[in-house]
Amino acid sequence: MAEATPDRATTPRSLTSDGGATIAYRQRRGRAPGIMFLGGFMSDMTGTKAEALDRFCAGRDQAYLRFDYFGHGASSGDFKDGTIGRWKGDALAALDQLTQGPQILVGSSLGGWIMLLVALARPERVKALVGIAAAPDATEDLMWAELSETARETMMRDGLVRQPSQYSSEDYVLTRQLIEEGRRHLVLRAPIAIDCPVRLLHGMRDPDVPWRTSLTLAERLTGADVRVTLVKEGDHRLSNEADLGLLTQTIETLL
């Protein structure tokens, strides 16, 4: 259950799951529809885009929720024990217990995959989706597919492999459990029955998630109101001033 005391946008609070793990979150009360931010792999709710959306929502008196997945940021748990299914569960718990009414889900990178899984599970709660370099099926198509044969053998033998990250001094930790469990949640292999408005933003200089992934996702979505915006000089993060302006403008049109 969420703590009963009023939430403050500047103070992290925690939601306790059935298993006893705690999901850290920050929440701003305001008008509907709410905005819910889903971060990327090994990122947390204090990142540039999450903070920019907080300022945007404050200026509009818009409800806003951001949180850290299990093993991320201020939440409990060991990152190595995280899986797509577990992080989807965190997102659903946050949606179900911390928000009311329709929500616009904003998913960054791996959060774009979690965003789709949440929308499939709770279609009645989702007003629209905004993907930022969305990375559906990333564990299979980007992580597993790009591992060398030696790295794959190491993962299968030891249960994990470490890969350098250009965004952090800490290596990415890829586990056998993450890859194998992720195969239960793949979405790009068939039509995706999501009919709400979807906006996909992607940098064409993204070295991590090919921009054509957003085109493939747009093709798979069954809804008609799907638009892809490509930023020719954009990188994976899409976090400079112009990129953040594009993000908030996109959300504003959906509001």
Summarize this structure as a short list of keywords or feature phrases.
alpha/beta; 8-stranded mixed beta sheet; 10 strands; globular; 35% helix; 255 residues; Rossmann fold
Detail the topology: elements first, then pairings.
Elements: E1 13-16, E2 22-28, E3 31-38, H1 48-60, E4 62-67, H2 84-98, E5 103-108, H3 110-121, E6 126-132, H4 138-146, H5 149-158, E7 160-163, E8 172-175, H6 176-182, E9 198-203, H7 212-220, E10 226-231, H8 241-254
How does this structure look, described?
With 255 residues, the chain is an alpha/beta fold. It is built from 8 helices and 10 strands. An 8-stranded mixed beta sheet has the order 1-2-4-3-5-6-9-10, with helices on both faces. Strands 7-8 form a two-stranded antiparallel ribbon. Helix 2 (84-98) packs across helix 3. The relative contact order is 0.14.
Assembly type of the chains comes to single chain
- Tell me the Rg in angstroms: 17 Å
Total number of domains: 1
How many beta-strand elements? Answer: 10
CATH architecture: 3-Layer(aba) Sandwich
Q: Which class do the helix and strand fractions yield?
A: alpha/beta
CATH topology: Rossmann fold
Number of helices: 8
The description of the largest β-sheet is: 8 strands, mixed
What is the gist of this entry?
The protein is of the alpha/beta class.
